[in-house]
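Subject: for your reference before the review

Hello V.,

The reviewers asked for a structural picture of the protein, and I figured it would be easier to keep everything in one thread rather than splitting it across files. Below is the amino acid sequence we used in the manuscript, unchanged from the supplementary table.
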Amino acid sequence: MTRAGLIAITVLAACSTAPSTGDDDDVGVDGAVAIDAIAIDAPPPDAADARPYTTTPASCDDVVGDLYLTPAGLPPLTTGDRGAIVRCVLGPELDAIAAASAASESGATVDATTGVRILKIAYRTVRGDGSAAVTTATVWLPLVPRALPAPVALVARSTSGIADACAPSRGELPLPELGLPFAARGFVAIAPDFAGLGNEGVHAYLDNREAASQLFDGVRALRILVGGSIGDPVTALGYSQGGGVVLSAQALEYELTGQRSLRGVAAMAPEWPTSTASFGYQRVLRDPAMITGVAGLAPPTVTVLRQYGWFANRLGAEHAGDSFPAAERAAIVDEIESLCTVELGAALGTQQPRVRDFVDEGFRVAMLACIDGTAGCVEPAASFHAWMEGDVVTADPAGARVLVVQGLGDQVMPAASQAACDVAKLRAEGVNPDVCSDTFATHDTVLERKIEHAAAWAEAVAAGVTAPTCSSTFLPPCVR
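And here is what came back from the structure prediction:
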């Protein structure tokens, strides 16, 4: 490693209980561990693109109102076109104090070492079936990167809905609790909205392969935007839906990119499709009289979003609502297309309070036949079921190290039926994840309570030094 290939920094890593190694690290139970001279090996710069690092790309001159309007007449997508920038909006510049303050206001404490420039971009990518698409994204560029080429942190958001207004990048300062803990520490960070959320098309909710592809295409977009001063993705962090996305990125990185540059993947309260039983889907189908009046991200919300996204993308917009009862179809489609997660869950709970009100009976019976392997597994249930089974990806034992963070009070992604099953699956596939649990954290509070630990863990693993450990690693047995 050359001297130019690293920047020495100090990390305050929360929630550490690592034993003393006898060196200069000061470790306290549930306190902080000071890790000196953390550095990240920088890959050699791209000789074909020697543009100097900048936080104000010359081509970034679109206005916010145009970001979600894909230019007409784009050429057919080739492999070389993936990541091509079609829109770029220059956002605010925050100094280190302002970046730390913005992160803190959102629930994340950051020991900022640099200021941050925020951009919003749209870039070319692919859908799960390989067809061309465009996704919008938020980019955080540190004013002083920790190395050159600058290491990249991939950020994956939680469920926000399918309606265009729900795209996180539409916010004035999007996802500060996820992006700023990395950018304010010198990483370039990017968080895609995922295609169809905010722009044309329909978001393919919980499509593992599609989301991972779009996440990695974001690195290509960064290099096109900034040049050879952008390095490889070395860490990834996601929350809820995004936790599942980064676990899929761990599984698919080599297949999708031909390399294994990710060193650490931190999944917080992950929503990771690992079987047809995930997120209570089989329980929903088997009890049409079940009362489901729960606001937010509950089994009814997951069910309608996933079915709507698949039907719209695979069968066409005119069939998007075909899995819903005919009498409720128009109302459910209107709810999906106009409401974000919390409001959508509340609307389903009041207007379609039982399973039979939001799952078509013929589709429900056919899906159960597909799941149970009995007669009656007919279209379109047969194709949807095949996609669900194919959507399950296998962890890469040679890939990135994994951290799973879970609140034991989580009623949205319960520890027993989700995180514990995810961990069991990872272990069975040769990946032994680190675990950090919180007895009192719910789905809504785990991010605020544990983001410092997750970000410190990710930073340490990316730098190749001892990662902080958590005071609790307990998870209940996997029960579905």
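For the response letter, the relevant points are probably these. The chain is about 30% helix and 20% strand. The CA atoms of residues 153 and 189 lie 5 Å apart.

Happy to draft the paragraph if you're swamped.

O.
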